[in-house]
Amino acid sequence: METSKSTDGSDYTERLARLQQPLWKRVLDVQAPYRWNVRRLFGDREVLDIGCGIGRNLDHLAPNGVGVDHNEHSVQICRDRGLKAFTIEDFKKSEYAQPGRFGGMLAAHLVEHMPRPDAVKILESYLEYLAPGAIVVLICPQERGYATDATHVAFTDLDGLEDVATQLGLSVNKRLSFPFPQAAGKIFTYNEFVLVAQKA
Asked: Coiled-coil ranges per the record (predicted)?
């Protein structure tokens, strides 16, 4: 039975959709700085977005993003919006599941939803699809954002993200607080820890 802590049901997908619907968010284009940041970090690389949800970052990466998510309801919303997204099983059968295909991998708001060893295991399973030198970006919410979601399991700061990257055998290039300095993360829901790493 689904609970408030589940990320695999239709209720979770509906919650994500509700969070993006308010008119003020669309009028003010609140995603503009995040869109700029993701595009700046990846450039024109083809990016595999792990835990793509309903496609916020796939929108930012378009047309170079391919998403994977365990929630079939979220994947369907992505597809309905014309984005390239797959369930885990469907991705493995797709034309995109080719060794070394992607120049980048994004895991935004994924790691905090599970114990760290589980996050490492999931991300490790996609490393084969990355080309040598691929950029890997890991993003987690800061304190205020972490507290707003009952499905969050493990608070993960920059040191935690660096630990994930190290366990994956990646070299760390950059550690950022975005869009504001880290102190803002205690009061601003949408401040993020951003770690940029690279596959050898």
From this structure: none
pLDDT tens for 125-168 read 999 999 999 999 999 999 999 999 999 999 999 999 999 999 99
- Residue 27: burial class (beta carbons within 10 Å; 0-12, 13-18, 19+): exposed
The class level of CATH for 10-198 reads alpha beta
Distance in angstroms (rounded) separating the CA atoms of residues 97 and 102:
9
Q: What are the boundaries of each domain within the chain?
A: 10-198
CB neighbourhood size of 89 (10 A) = 11
Q: Would you tell me how many other CB atoms lie within 10 Å of the CB of residue 38?
A: 24
Dihedrals phi, psi of 112, to nearest 5 degrees: -75, -10
Q: Look up residue 81 and give its two tokens.
A: 């919006």
pTM above 0.85, yes or no: yes
Count of other CB atoms within 10 angstroms of residue 158: 18
CA 143 remoteness from chain centre: 17
